[in-house]
TrEMBL record:
Protein name, per record: ATP-binding cassette domain-containing protein
Protein's organism: Aromatoleum diolicum
All residue ranges annotated as the ABC transporter domain in the record: 7-264
SUPFAM superfamilies according to UniProt: P-loop containing nucleoside triphosphate hydrolases
Swiss-Prot/TrEMBL keywords: Amino-acid transport, ATP-binding, Cell membrane, Membrane, Nucleotide-binding, Transport
GO molecular function, one term: ATP binding
Pfam families: ABC_tran (PF00005), BCA_ABC_TP_C (PF12399)
Record has Transport as a keyword: yes
Regions annotated as coiled coil: none
Family in the record: Belongs to the ABC transporter superfamily.
Length: 278
């Protein structure tokens, strides 16, 4: 694993009965960069996320994380809980999974339940607000306030998450993931349902998280205005196999990629599919 590689996926395969959703995938994700995973519907993108975040146990292959403080971790052997808590690989989902009746602030505090549980030592001590637990609560609040401010959400901190517009809820999901101090932030279609202005704001946010906070981002996205404008590197899947990888410019012009998206006989202009200025 080279010094700059954060995640190293080797020969990953995931089968569901007779269906091979991920087929012998090898991929390196560098530290401090944005890597996009793209591909047509059913290509295996979410399955890939599920394999590296402990939701699925891959059929074969390895997923090694070079954790900056804890050394190498084998994610494919870990439960989802440990991937988030110990490896600090944190994800969002295609469908929004906020607690709609809780306020935005409460959603961000609940996300830090691991820290609070650890401080309570899984005992009644936490309920009596013993000092260690109280300190952890204050830290959780500070972290939530920090990310609310950073993502421009402070004004809606006390609003029920479910009452907010869809685009704002997507932003809250990212803020919630950031509260866990991710080493790798995995975003599953963060631009789904966003209007063009919100997509452009998402681009600015992702670039700033990467460039200013040094957070590595793994991004599944269909919106090419996001993919092409923020990605340092793109990996293209089709039927579970990697068919191409490279810079946005390389991917935009790759005949295999255009064919995978548009089909063999389709002669239409690929610019409509692969947008952006990169
Ligand atoms: N739990 C499962 N059981 C059986 N088949 C599954 C399961 N999860 C995914 N699949 C199948 O694996 C293939 C890849 O699905 P996946 O959701 O990973 O694709 P995707 O690239 O994320 O698609 P989309 O862009 O539509 O979200 C599909 O054929 C899907 O039906």
């Amino acid at each position: 694993m080279s010094a700059a590689t954060l995640l190293s996926v080797e020969n990953l395969t995931m089968r569901f009965g007779g269906l091979t959703a991920i087929d012998d995938l090898s991929l390196s994700v560098p530290a401090g960069k944005i890597t996009a995973i793209i591909g047509p519907n059913g290509a295996g993108k979410t399955t890939f996320f599920n394999c590296l975040t402990g939701f699925y146990k891959p059929t074969t292959g390895s997923v090694r994380l070079a954790h900056p403080k804890r050394g190498e971790m084998r994610l494919e052997t870990m439960t989802g809980h440990r991937v988030a808590r110990d490896a600090q690989v944190v994800r969002t989902f295609q469908n929004i999974r906020l607690f709609p009746k809780m306020t935005v602030l409460e959603n961000l505090i609940v996300a830090q339940h691991n820290r609070l549980q650890d401080a309570s030592r899984f005992s009644i001590a936490g309920l009596f607000s013993l000092p260690g637990y109280r300190k952890a609560e204050v830290e959780a609040l500070k972290t939530a306030v920090h990310w609310l401010d950073r993502l421009g959400l402070t004004g809606i901190a006390d609003t029920a998450a479910g009452d907010l517009p869809y685009g704002t809820q997507r932003r809250i999901e990212i803020a919630r993931a950031l509260c866990v101090d991710p080493v790798l932030l995995c975003l599953d279609e963060p631009a789904a349902g966003l209007n063009p202005r919100e997509s452009a704001e998402l681009n600015t946010l992702l670039l700033s998280l990467c460039r200013e906070e040094g957070i590595a981002i793994l991004l599944i996205e269909h919106d090419m205005s996001v993919v092409m404008n923020v990605s340092d590197h793109i990996c293209v899947l089709n039927y579970g196999r990697k068919i191409a990888e490279g810079t946005p410019l390389e991917i935009r012009n790759d005949p295999q990629v255009i064919k995978a998206y548009l089909g063999e006989d389709d002669e239409s202009e690929p610019a409509t599919l692969i947008g952006g200025n990169a």
